[in-house]
Structure formats: C-alpha cells, structure tokens
Amino acid sequence: MGETVLSGNEHFYNNGEIEWQPLALTLVEYPKGDWIGKIFALISLAPFGIGAGFVTLILFRRDLHTIAFFFGTLLNELLNIILKHLICEPRPLARGHLYNEYGMPSSHAQNIWFFSFYVLYFFVIRLHHINNNSIISALWRVIIVGGCFMLAVLVSIGRVYLHYHTVSQVVVGGIIGFVFATTWFIVVHRILTPLFPQLVSLKVCEILMIRDTTLIPNVLWFEYTKSRQEARARGRKMASLKTTQ
Question: pLDDT tens across 195-234, in order?
C-alpha cells in the first residue's frame, strides 16, 4: 500500500489518490483553549441525542404519538435541506472540506426549536387533562418544557458563537422550526390522531405491537400500576403453587 500524504484536511494515497474527508455531520470545531466554545460544541450535539432518544422510545414504547413526532422531525429536516439549496446562502466561516452545504436556515436551530415547541404543545394541549391539581405534575412539566427551551437557546447561541451560522440564519431557522412545529402538531392532533384506532387494528401494527395511548390519561402511571398488579398476581400464583407442592 502506498505512503499516505496529508494535505490540509485531505488525505491521499500516492498510488491511488484516494481523497479522505471527515464526516461533517457530527464534527464540531471550536477555538483551541476556549472552554466556552468547547461547551457550545458539546451542546451542538444535542440534536443527535434527541434522535437517539426517539429511536429508543419507538423501539421500547411503540406509541403512535412518538412515531408521529419523530416523523415530523424527519420532515422538518427535509424541509431544511430543501430551503438551504433554494436560498444558497453560505456559512459565515469557510471550513474547507468540512462543510460544503449552505447555512440558511440553520438546521440545528430549526430542529431544536421544532422539538421544543412540539413538546410545549404536547404538554399544554395533548396532556392538559393529566393531574391538573397535582403540584408535582405541574412542576415536572415546567422543568421539562423549560429545559427544552433553555437547550434551544443555548444551541442557537452556540451556532453563532462558533461561526457556523450568522444571527439571521439562526433566527430564520428558529422561526421555521416554530411554524413547522405548530403546523405538524395541528396535523397530528386534528387529522392523524382520530385515525390512530384504525391504524393499530391493522395486522402489520399488531405484528409490530404498535399501540395508541390517546385515551390513556397518564401512560406512565398506567404502566406502573398494571406492571405492579401483574407482578403481585404472579407472585401470589407462585406462592400458592409452592404451598400445594
């Protein structure tokens, strides 16, 4: 195999001239020695953590509302790609071969604000009937929604601080994320949710164990009480079998 030659951000083999390029999707640069920039760089990876969380929830819960939320996230990302190639506005700082795509609107800002506003709508509208008189429940809602919006603000500031986007690119991305979150929530809440009972009755949904939790006011409490009752029932059954032996 030929000797490797390093040229900037590119790697070549002398005999084959194979160009190597880093995956810019998860690569975030920050000024060396700048601990604030390092924190913002780590925060910029938040959308990937959210994506991993979606996959985990879908695999283990298989709820149509979670699937619809995730599908809206994918559509939001597709919209961002389309808008970037229509507007064709460059990023404020050229990074060689690390980033070849355009910067308007910011995908990070659009995705994180879409996520935050959809979570807000879900808690305020979809879960408005759950434990309204419970202080603990209300406190958890404030913490979760407030945490999402705080993360959205930090991600947006970080994209400007690290010179991946201009202020206008981040602001436009946030506005588009808000508008699409509102639109998609209305579609899910008004159009798709009434169809969920028919969808879960399909054979393919039964095979995949996809479920509709729309009519269950508190899914976590429901699953907790049901699992506890089942565990107690099985425990009593095992105890009765041991006494008869």
Answer: 888 888 888 888 888 888 777 766 666 777 877 888 888 8
pTM of the model: 0.77
Identity of the residue numbered 176: I
For 194, which DSSP code? G
| Amino acid found at 166 | T
Residues in the chain: 245
> 129 pLDDT band (50/70/90 cuts)?
low
Q: How are the residues of the chain apportioned to helix, strand and coil, as percentages rounded to the nearest 5? A: 65, 5, 30
pLDDT of 217: 66
Which of 149, 188, 206 minimizes the C-alpha distance to 71?
188
How far is the C-alpha of 117 from the C-alpha of 125, rounded, in Å?
Answer: 12
Choose among 99, 72, 86: nearest CA to 177.
72
Tokens representing 31 are 């000024």
Residues paired with 20 in a beta bridge: 11
Instruction: Please name which of 43, 83, 68, 63 lies closest in space to residue 169, comparing C-alpha atoms.
Output: 83
In whole angstroms, give the CA distance from residue 15 to residue 7: 15
Token look-up 């999402």 returns 148
CA distance 72 to 12: 40
